[in-house]
Amino acid sequence: MTDPQLVLTERVQQALAAAFGAEYATADPLIRPSQFADYQANVAMSLSKRLRRAPREVAQEIADRLSGASGEGRPFPGTVEVSGPGFLNITLSDDWITGQVAELLTDPRAGVPETPSPQTVVIDYSAPNAAKEMHVGHLRTTIVGDALVRVHEHLGNRVVRQNHLGDWGTPFGMLIEHLLDIGEEAAVAQLEAGEGNAYYQAARAKFDSDPEFNRRARARVVTLQAEEPETMRLWHIFMDATVRYFNKVYTQLGVTLTDADIAGESMYNPMLAQVCDELQEHGIAVISDGALCVFPPGFTGREGQPLPFMIRKSDGGYGYATTDMATIRYRVQDLKADRLLYVIGATQALHMSMLYASARMAGWLPDHVSAEHVQIGSVLGSDGKMFKTRSGESIKLLDLLAEAETRAAAVIAERDYDEATRAEIAHAVGMGAVKYADLSVGHDSEYVFDFDRMLALTGNTGPYLQYATARIRSIFRKGGIDPAEATGPIVLGHPAERALALRLLGFAPAVLEMAEGSVPHKLAAYLFETASTLTTFYEHCPVLKEGVEPATRASRLALLALTLRVLGTGLDLLGIPVPERM
Ligand code: ARG
């Protein structure tokens, strides 16, 4: 265990138990990073009431136990001081930090443990709609979901990706008829190019104005529902072309989704009748105004009336809720999920909580399985409205990503690289910038899409972190040293070395926190702080410069090698590509 916060928590708990009795052994010592020391523990204040003693006195007693003044146990890995109304200021010893860093140096995982009890984590993300354009909202659920996939796989959990494509429903009647009208080849070309929206609008216009087309489209819905072979052949042509476009976006982004992860709405079609029957038979769903509905407890409308979760409309049709009930049953019963993550827009919060409540009622979501809505906030334009183009039409994602690359190329224009290297860097920086913008803010908060801000080389941006790794690599290149060979030993002289070393110990906890709470922005914040600490280190701690003592140089190179491993692994877990040079 190298996480200082955990180590200190354990030590203070032991001191609490020794001083005040075993019942305090699990009290939270409230260890936090501090301005005045490495950490502070605030537990004395909260305990003083319960113990009916002055907080400073309580703090002093804990401090005495910790520093061994009262004679027990192992030496404390630092010093403790009581300050103010009863804070415990804790400073770790350089020896202890050095020892922990030495341990991390021998660990290719930089301290991140593999989970002793792997879980099956089913992650629903991306999920664009075939009949419409993939928009920046889908971009964000794709990017956040993929980061969660990466972190769970790194920890050794079994991850099942589920791309819940919107690939079924009544609009497909007119989409298929339009395909027949314009010809398979033309349709495929248009869809592959990402013109799904224009395609949809053309079909829709005919549906609204041309009675004959309208009749054909409706008839087509019937043969689609019946999965009649010729209709299914046409549906496949439409879907395959559409998916090829989605795949272009995934490839461009470096997202790990493949065709094998597609589990769209169509996949659940054959299960829906049974879903409804089963719920009705068990009295979980009841007929209300002709529709089949679940009324999960605790959900009420404005006048206090119970809210329906409608799983079959009065015309007999199934909807989004029906399919989602089926996703839960399938993922728990067939995929054997321990944990379900639905990475979906925050606007669907009510749908998701009614879904979980209904599934719990049905017994399809047992208590030991957790179901979590990872709410994705909207991406806004500079006008504060949903992000679109300047002219107000929605933007084509591949165009947007291409623009990110062009702008990234401009950022590195001055550098002296050949064409191929330049293109590689522009790609990594462009995609890194876009992805990091989605990941560095809380996944449920809105933010304004702004190329200039996300591509900046300073501040909390993807390019800043990429640059931090490239800069370390360039030192190793210049010195002709392989980072794998930079093994120290570590000696902490300058405060900037100490600060960097201490920071590196926080990597594993940041990774675990991200996985546990589905909070990529916490890992992003940690990486940004690490890169900032590194910047200070550079200012004060020359490495290759003449006159630097060999032992100091060896130690600094080892710190840099470990920092590179931490930043590189961390960025990889977020799905941010890391260029060798920049
Ligand atoms: N296709 C939906 C949309 O674009 C998202 C589907 C999310 N997944 C789910 N199981 N409901 O809004």
Automatic annotation (TrEMBL):
* Molecular function as annotated in GO: ligase activity
Which leading EC class covers this enzyme? ligase
Q: Which residues form the DALR anticodon binding domain?
A: 465-582
Look up the EC number in the record and give it: 6.1.1.19
Q: One Pfam family from the UniProt entry?
A: tRNA-synt_1d
Name where it's found.
Cytoplasm
Catalytic reactions of this protein: tRNA(Arg) + L-arginine + ATP = L-arginyl-tRNA(Arg) + AMP + diphosphate
User: Which keywords appear in this protein's UniProt record, sorted alphabetically?
Assistant: Aminoacyl-tRNA synthetase, ATP-binding, Cytoplasm, Ligase, Nucleotide-binding, Protein biosynthesis
Among SUPFAM superfamilies, the record links this protein to: Anticodon-binding domain of a subclass of class I aminoacyl-tRNA synthetases (SSF47323), Arginyl-tRNA synthetase (ArgRS), N-terminal 'additional' domain (SSF55190), Nucleotidylyl transferase (SSF52374)
Keyword Aminoacyl-tRNA synthetase (UniProt): yes
Q: Where is the Arginyl tRNA synthetase N-terminal domain?
A: 6-92
- Kindly report the protein's main subcellular placement as a broad class: cytoplasm
From which residue to which does the signal peptide run? none
Subunit structure and binding partners: Monomer.
Q: Which family does it belong to?
A: Belongs to the class-I aminoacyl-tRNA synthetase family.
Q: Can you say what this protein is called?
A: Arginine--tRNA ligase
Which organism encodes this protein? Answer: Streptosporangium pseudovulgare
